[in-house]
Q: What sequence folds into this?
């Protein structure tokens, strides 16, 4: 192809053109920089980006998020040093006792809590209930928990969380479940535990299961066995990229909290010691006989879990006779288990 | 070698530590007890919940230890929650008067949650006097609305409906930063903090 003349451009003309184009781009960049320096241009402001979501969640670390049902409890939580509150219609223990369908809390109650405390306010929506989540985002909730404590509306498909500007937290019993939620757009993971029981056993089981899978993946990675990571991803129905990311990090790729059955400062310290980034306390505080001091003690034990003296101090603040009575998980009927909802 | 301590009670202290670890001639150190400050050249108070960090600081006497540390002239940088803790005056945009322990080290006034809730959190570029443009993340960020005495605002942000408010303030050996350089990974402010420890 050596056509010239009659509307055909010589190759050399294209080089000249591209060079001019480059000069033009540099000139535009210079103009922009000069305008920025003189404060004439508004820098771009981008809200709801993944970085903004993951960044926000990382501020919760080593903190305690407490379940509350009204603004008075929210104030107690804030005064005790909670990093956030989770507004519910009923505490998980009461959800269990009452039965029936459990839904998102009243928007008025959530709004009142938002107007009372300065710390972030979270609320729960039902698994798969896109519209409940949309409402929570609309009123300005800081974090949405797509939670198995409420009655799921879709056991097969969770909400597509990438469509929201508000970050989501999801429960998981093991690493594959967690990675599936992260793939769907969850910015934060928590163990499911068995909510409303005051029994931390299930949360421990879930955290240890996560830790073991991470150790296995890390081992494959260090051994250079990418094939094994491939097989892990396939067998566990998780995206290979997320399995590989976990293997490279050697930890959960997002902030990972403990939840479900935490009732005492020692419970919280135990979960931190197992590698949790922080804890959710549900019924444990406001179903106890000493919520004010217990809330403070759990905050102390979470931040100073690695200092036995502090955990002793925290545990001495609370009295075991005041702890919530709790339920033995082995006595729950299979249909009463909440942790199996939405895998 | 400069030892930079990061207050590690609550918040994103790990992000600070990991970023400091990538810098040459810097040794990051977790600070959880007053005794941890003894060999620290500069201190960072990280982001997190200022109410939580403020309350936890009192338990082991870290509040007094950090005030002494700053009064001795050793550099301190507070990011987001850390900036709130350094300020002399704090109010919340919605709740108004707040009841939280603060260190009252810097002659600045801040408004908590000035830009709104998490839904309004954003990433952007800001210009900092002497450091140039920095890519940063504002998360439920406070704003510096006043500085007096020898405190000086060295970076502003223009935000729709709010107008021009302070994003970074400096006073002698102290630096209040309302955004998160540790989340966007820019080390310019860290270098500035470390240069203060050499002065």
A:
């Amino acid at each position: 192809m050596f056509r010239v003349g009659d509307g055909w451009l010589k190759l050399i003309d294209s080089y000249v053109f591209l060079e001019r184009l480059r000069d033009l781009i540099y000139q535009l960049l210079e103009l922009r920089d000069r305008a920025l320096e003189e404060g004439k241009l508004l820098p771009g402001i981008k809200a709801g980006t993944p970085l903004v979501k993951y960044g926000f969640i990382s501020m919760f670390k080593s903190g305690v998020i407490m379940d509350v049902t009204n603004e008075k409890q929210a104030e107690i939580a804030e005064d005790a040093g909670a990093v956030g509150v989770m507004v519910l219609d009923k505490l998980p223990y009461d959800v269990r006792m009452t039965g029936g369908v459990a839904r998102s809390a009243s928007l008025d109650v959530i709004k009142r809590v938002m107007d009372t405390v300065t710390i972030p306010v979270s609320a729960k929506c039902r698994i798969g209930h896109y519209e409940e989540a949309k409402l929570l985002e609309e009123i300005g909730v800081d974090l949405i928990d797509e939670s198995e404590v409420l009655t799921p509306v879709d056991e097969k498909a969770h909400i597509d969380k990438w469509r929201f500007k508000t970050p989501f937290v999801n429960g998981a019993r093991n690493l594959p479940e967690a990675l599936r939620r992260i793939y769907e757009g969850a910015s934060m993971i928590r163990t499911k535990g068995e909510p409303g029981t005051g029994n931390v056993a299930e949360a421990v089981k879930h955290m240890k299961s996560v830790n073991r899978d991470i150790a296995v993946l890390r081992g494959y990675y260090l051994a250079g066995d990418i094939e094994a990571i491939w097989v892990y991803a396939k067998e566990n129905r998780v995206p290979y990229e997320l399995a590989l990311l976990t293997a490279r990090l050697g930890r959960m790729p997002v902030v990972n909290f403990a939840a479900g059955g935490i009732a005492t400062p020692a419970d919280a310290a135990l979960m931190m010691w197992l590698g949790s980034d922080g804890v959710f306390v549900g019924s444990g505080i406001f179903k106890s006989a000493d919520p004010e001091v217990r809330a403070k003690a759990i905050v102390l034990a979470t931040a100073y879990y690695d200092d036995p003296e502090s955990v002793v101090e925290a545990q001495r603040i609370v009295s075991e006779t005041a702890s919530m009575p709790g339920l033995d998980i082995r006595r729950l009927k299979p249909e009463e288990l909440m942790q199996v909802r939405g895998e | 070698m400069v030892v930079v301590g990061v207050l590690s009670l609550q918040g994103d202290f790990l992000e600070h530590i990991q970023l400091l670890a990538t810098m040459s001639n810097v040794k990051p150190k977790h600070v959880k007890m007053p005794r941890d400050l003894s060999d620290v050249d500069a201190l960072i108070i990280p982001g997190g919940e200022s109410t939580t960090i403020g309350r936890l600081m009192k338990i082991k006497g870290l509040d007094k230890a950090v005030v002494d540390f700053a009064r001795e002239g050793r550099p301190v940088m507070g990011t987001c929650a850390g900036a709130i803790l350094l300020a002399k005056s704090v109010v919340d945009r919605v709740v108004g008067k707040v009841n939280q322990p603060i260190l009252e080290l810097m002659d600045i006034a801040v408004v908590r949650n000035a830009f709104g809730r998490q839904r309004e959190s954003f990433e952007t570029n800001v210009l900092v006097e002497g450091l140039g443009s920095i890519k940063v993340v504002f998360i439920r960020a406070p704003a510096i609305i006043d500085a007096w005495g020898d405190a000086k605002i060295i970076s502003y942000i223009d935000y729709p409906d709010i107008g021009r408010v302070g994003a970074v303030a400096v006073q002698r050996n102290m630096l209040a930063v309302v955004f998160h350089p540790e989340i966007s990974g820019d080390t310019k402010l860290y270098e500035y903090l470390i240069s203060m420890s050499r002065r």
Summary: Strands of chain A lie at 46-47, 64-68, 84-87, 121-126, 143-147, 168-172, 188-191, 255-257, 279-281. Residues 11-37 of chain A form the longest helix (27 residues). The two ends of chain A are 60 Å apart (CA to CA). Chain A touches chain B through 49 residues (CB under 8 Å).
